Amino acid sequence: MKNWLAFLLVGFATCALQAQPSSDQTTSVTTDPFQAELDRIQTERGHQEARYAQEEAACYRRFAVNDCLRDVRVRRRVTMEDLRRQEIAVNDVQRRQKGVEEIQRLEEKSSLQSQQEAAERREAAIQDHKERLERAEQKRLDKQQAEQDRLSPAPRTERDKSSDRPTAESRSADRQEYEEKQRQAQENRARRDKALADKVGQPPVKSLPTPP
């Protein structure tokens, strides 16, 4: 039984290789070796059924009908059991082959997915490294600008310049201050002239009028 199963597997592999389309062919027909073997077993079963039916019919023309029928039915059962074993073996090999193919498909899918995930992780790492470099460069520039601002005074803005322009209140205060200084100067001159006149016995000289 084991030798027969090994021969069956080798035959399936050979049929599968022969059924694969070549690169030189423009059109090809792919045949499933497992289905072909199942069809063969089904055809053989039909032939055997017809054969044993004919043998049973011939038994009725003999004298020992029961013995003939018993012999035919025993051989028929042995043949059908052997065909059934072949069918089960083919189904088992087919099921294993499909399992292997499914595993291969899953491995290929997993490999492609792993490659895609690795590419995404690599791209994310490159982008993160680029952003870190940009942040470090911006931080360096900010620090350099702050150092320059600390060492050199900031240029005066238009608002700062406008604060130096005289206003009406500042002009009025300046005028009052000027007039007060002129008045005090006039009083000082008057006191000096009076003191000088008293000393020499001459009338004091009239002071000049205060300029506007």
Brief digest:
Helices cover 80% and strands 0% of the residues.
Overview features:
212 residues, mainly alpha, 80% helix, rod-shaped
Explain what you see.
This protein is 80% helix and 0% strand. With 212 residues, the chain is an all-alpha fold. It has a domain at 2-12 and 31-150. Helix 2 packs antiparallel against helix 3. The radius of gyration is 61 Å and the shape is rod-shaped. Mean pLDDT is 76; it is low at 1-10 and 12-29.
Low-confidence stretches: 1-10, 12-29
Mean pLDDT: 76
Extended strand count: 0
Structural class from helices and strands? mainly alpha
Evaluate the radius of gyration.
Answer: 61 Å
State the distance separating the first and last CA atoms: 141 Å
Which series of helices and strands comes N to C? HHHHH
Biggest pleated sheet: none
Coarse shape: rod-shaped
State which percent range the strand residues make up: under 5%
By oligomeric state, this entry counts as single chain
User: Helix count, per DSSP?
Assistant: 5
Helix percentage range:
over 70%
Topology:
Elements: H1 2-19, H2 33-59, H3 65-151, H4 158-162, H5 168-200
Helix pairs in contact: 2-3
